[in-house]
Amino acid sequence: MNGMLQRWEEVRARIAAATARAGRPADAVRLVAVSKTHPAGAVAELFSCGQADFGESRVQELLAKAPTLPSAVRWHFIGHLQKNKIRKILPLACLIHGVDSAALAGEIDRVADEGGLFPEVLLEVNVSGEATKFGFQPEALRRELDGLLRLPRIQVTGLMTMAPYAEDPEKARPTFVALRELREALAAEFGIRLDVLSMGMSGDYEVAIEEGATLVRVGTAIFGARPTAEA
Ligand SMILES: *Cc1c(COP(=O)(O)O)cnc(C)c1O
């Protein structure tokens, strides 16, 4: 087995162990392999081994890769989506993880209407309060959510966050707990389901699973390091 397949097996084993440790069903967590900056050939190889979900954060890169790969690949758009790129991403992505403003949600809804689509989206929340991060502040999301839920086309199925970078994965735990608690509070207040929690990356996905992640976005631990400018 080559290095990438070995690392992928290792990540899958760790996901299974963390899921069991948390007393969650074995299928509670889905792995999104973050293939940004890595060649389409690597995606093809993992897909042939059974990895179905892949994450990309750049529109141009996804547009270049997707047509060369089987149409059964499930693409997750995990980057910061610019409004003028929505039209290109909607037909390709099975899930848009980073909807971080009411204006973006409204524009996705408008473009989806033109295309007759009902895109599934996650709302990105900046629970850690880091100034450098995209995402709704929790209180702003509470104010905006009613309007977002009224948009006829977009399907809001959950929340997404990124923990501040830290060597020690335990440092990410409060961020993941905060996202889960926000999900529980909003679901109760608005009488909705927000089943999907997209949280956890290479350095902290096991902690995220212990705190309720249903999607983990793992790149480096599978594909190896990216060129630093892209990190
Ligand atoms: C790049 C990226 C990841 C994957 O990061 P790794 O540390 O390589 O696992 C996850 N989520 C988002 C939003 C990203 O941009």
Brief account:
It contains nine helices and eight strands. The protein has helices at residues 3-21, 40-48, 59-65, 86-89, 102-115, 138-150, 173-190, 205-210, 220-223; strands spanning 30-34, 53-56, 74-77, 93-99, 120-124, 155-160, 196-198, 215-218.
Description:
The chain is an alpha/beta fold. 41% of the residues lie in helices and 16% in strands. It has 9 helices and 8 strands. Strands 7-6-5-4-3-2-1-8 form an 8-stranded parallel sheet. The protein binds pyridoxal-5'-phosphate. Residues 34, 36, 57, 78, 162, 201-202, 217-221 line the site of pyridoxal-5'-phosphate.
Helix content: 40-55%
- What is the H/E string? HEHEHEHEHEHEHEHEH
Question: Total number of helical segments?
Answer: 9
Largest sheet: 8 strands, parallel
Give the N-terminus to C-terminus distance in angstroms.
27 Å
